[in-house]
TrEMBL record:
Keywords: Activator, DNA-binding, Transcription, Transcription regulation
Superkingdom of source: Bacteria
Protein name: Probable hydrogen peroxide-inducible genes activator
Coiled-coil zones: none
């Protein structure tokens, strides 16, 4: 039976949202920066106070109960509202003061952050960035649950509850073994992908989805490409250096990933395929003007570091 005097705490709601999004207690605890026993205790206290079982946990899986599903939108709205209160309370200092939790997708973070973090320190000296590198879907979940404040990722996105602002665009290039017949070639048609052993990233990476879309445009096979696949772009490039295939990369990765003499670059003909990177916020996030200034810094750094085109 529910305790009529019980009022859930913001942390208890964050715990519930993190477990419901991750469906994994250890991952949820890591996301929130707390121990797994503390997370389990917070969830148990929430369930006891509400008089409801929100999550079913077994040795093999974690499931959200029907009651949990009914409460999810209210918990999410409460966390979002409290974050908006905190943003508004920042007053004249605005949101770019103090700690800022920044989510970045893995195919952007290694190439943008070395230039971005010093630039942020110079432009916003009172800001303390906290970086979370993760795949797109989990960054969106983190935004919704309030675990991160903003995300830098490929746009557009059709995810509910978030709003995206394009920041910069960059072309794609093809990395091949140095001895490959396409090494150093320019003006390649997309149709060249039909006959190439194309290395793909794992499911969940937006770069994989973009590569699959390029293959579909020219009726290149997507399945049956081979057994090699990579969890990171750097691993895919190392496979290219080992002669296991070729891979599509954003322009930002070309310089850092071609320092290996076993790697060469081939480039596509106009219109060159590419991607757009944007700033993604919760729709309820306050301080949009200050975040717009943050976005301008990101676009400036991308243009300086790897020649991206501001949008």
């Amino acid at each position: 039976m529910a305790d009529q005097r019980f009022v859930p705490s913001l942390m208890q709601l964050r715990v519930f949202l993190a477990v419901a999004e991750r469906l994994h207690f250890r991952s949820a605890a890591e996301e929130l920066g707390m121990s797994q026993p503390s997370l389990s205790q917070a969830l148990a206290t929430l369930e006891d106070g509400l008089g409801l079982h929100l999550v079913e946990r077994s040795t093999r899986s974690v499931l959200v109960t029907p009651a949990g599903h009914r409460l999810l939108p209210y918990a999410r709205a409460a966390v979002t509202a409290m974050d908006a209160v905190a943003d508004a309370a920042a007053g004249s200092d605005g949101p770019l003061f103090g700690s800022l939790r920044i989510g970045v997708i893995p195919t952007v973070a290694p190439y943008l952050l070395p230039g971005l973090l010093p630039a942020l320190g110079e432009r916003f000296p009172d800001l303390t960035p906290r970086v979370v590198e993760d795949q797109t879907s989990r960054l969106v979940d983190g935004l919704r649950s309030g675990v991160i404040d903003l995300a830098i990722m490929a746009v557009p996105t059709d995810a509910m509850g978030v709003a995206a602002t394009p920041l910069y665009s960059e072309p794609f290039a093809l990395l091949v073994p140095a001895s490959h017949e396409l090494a150093g070639r320019e003006g390649l048609p997309l149709e060249i992908l039909v006959d190439q052993p194309l290395l793909m990233l794992d499911e969940g990476h937006c770069l994989r989805e973009q590569t699959v879309e390029l293959c579909r445009r020219v009726s290149a096979p997507v399945l049956g490409r081979g057994e090699s696949r990579a969890a990171s772009l750097t691993t895919a490039v190392r496979c290219v250096a080992g002669g296991l295939g070729v891979t599509i990369v954003p322009e930002s990765a070309v310089g850092p990933e071609t320092r290996d003499p076993g790697i060469a670059v081939a480039r596509f003909a106009d219109p060159v395929p590419g991607r757009t990177i944007g700033l993604v916020l919760r729709t309820a996030t306050a301080g949009a003007d200050a975040y717009a200034e943050f976005g301008r810094v990101v676009a400036e750094v991308a243009a300086q570091e790897f020649g991206a085109t501001p949008v």
